[in-house]
Design goal:
mainly alpha; 0% strand; DNA Cyclobutane Dipyrimidine Photolyase, subunit A, domain 3; 98 residues; elongated; 6 helices
Length: 98
């Protein structure tokens, strides 16, 4: 139990060894690394089933033509991106009161 709790604290950068900015996970890179073909995504997000592997991890990069071709219109069939990970990461790393 202690190891599990400690591991969760380590992943969240909380607890006694917290190192702000050291562990900022990027969900897009994690998905590309562990689900490169988007099989898991397609199984659980039906709106992205027809999106090819090269775009499935970042559907926000699809052009209007691609959205029509893959029947996945952003803001209609699938939500628009809420957080720009790179921008949020940079803002956090440059915040003065971390």
């Amino acid at each position: 139990m202690a190891a599990n709790n400690g591991n969760w604290q380590w992943c969240a950068s909380t607890g006694t060894d917290a190192m702000p900015g050291y562990r900022i996970f990027n969900p897009t890179l994690q998905a590309k690394k562990f689900d490169p073909d988007g099989e898991y995504i397609r199984a659980h997000v039906p709106e992205l089933r027809s999106v090819p592997a090269k775009l499935i991890h970042q559907p926000e990069l699809m052009t209007a033509d691609e959205q029509d071709r893959y029947d996945c219109r952003l803001g209609h069939d699938y939500p628009v991106q809420v957080v720009d990970h790179n921008q949020a990461r940079n803002e956090y790393l440059h915040a003065e009161n971390r």
